[in-house]
C-alpha cells in the first residue's frame, strides 16, 4: 500500500476533500542523479494537491488523515494511461507503414490513430473499473489530548 498524509479541507455528501503537499524523497534515493522524478519534484516545488475521497473514517475538517492506494491499482492505472496507448501507437504505426508499401505518411497516420484508440480504450476500461483506482481514506491521525503543551 502506498500512503500519503493530508489534511481534510472540506466535507461534502459523504466525501472529503483532502489536501496533500507533494514531497520528494530524492535526497535519500541512490538513483537521484539519473531520475526524472527529481526534475519533476523540483519543478513543482511542493505544490499542494486536493483529492476527493469517500469519507470511510468519519473525518472532519481539520483532521490529519492517511490516504492509501494499492500498488496493483497504481500499476493498473499506469497501464491504462501509458502502456495501452503506447503499444497501440507502435502497432498501428508499423501496420500503416507495412500496408502502404513503406509510405511514411501512413505510418504517421497509423501512429496517431493508434494513440487515439489507446486513449479511448483506456478510458473505457477505466470507466468499467468503478473506483478500483481511487485512493482510500485509511485512518484519521488523531493527536492525543494534552500533546504539545
Automatic annotation (TrEMBL):
Pfam families, per this entry?
Answer: RseC_MucC
Q: Which InterPro entries match?
A: RseC (IPR026268), SigmaE_reg_RseC_MucC (IPR007359)
Claim: Membrane is one of the keywords in the record: yes
Keyword Nucleotide-binding listed? The answer is: no
Per UniProt, the keywords (alphabetical) are:
Membrane, Transmembrane, Transmembrane helix
Write out the transmembrane intervals.
79-99, 105-122
Q: What is this protein called?
A: SoxR reducing system RseC family protein
Origin species, per record, is Marinobacter suaedae
Amino acid at each position: 500500500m502506498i500512503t500519503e498524509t493530508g489534511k481534510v479541507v472540506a466535507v461534502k455528501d459523504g466525501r472529503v476533500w483532502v489536501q496533500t503537499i507533494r514531497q520528494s524523497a530524492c535526497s535519500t534515493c541512490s538513483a537521484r542523479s539519473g531520475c526524472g522524478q527529481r526534475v519533476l519534484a523540483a519543478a513543482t516545488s511542493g505544490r499542494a494537491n486536493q483529492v476527493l475521497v469517500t469519507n470511510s473514517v468519519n473525518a472532519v475538517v481539520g483532521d490529519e488523515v492517511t490516504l492509501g492506494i494499492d500498488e496493483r491499482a497504481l500499476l493498473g492505472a499506469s497501464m491504462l494511461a501509458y502502456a495501452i496507448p503506447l503499444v497501440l501507437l507502435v502497432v498501428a504505426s508499423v501496420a500503416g507503414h507495412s500496408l502502404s508499401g513503406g509510405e511514411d505518411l501512413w505510418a504517421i497516420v497509423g501512429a496517431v490513430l493508434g494513440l487515439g484508440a489507446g486513449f479511448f480504450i483506456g478510458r473505457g476500461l477505466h470507466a468499467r473499473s468503478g473506483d478500483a483506482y481511487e485512493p482510500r481514506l485509511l485512518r484519521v491521525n488523531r493527536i492525543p489530548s494534552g500533546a504539545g503543551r
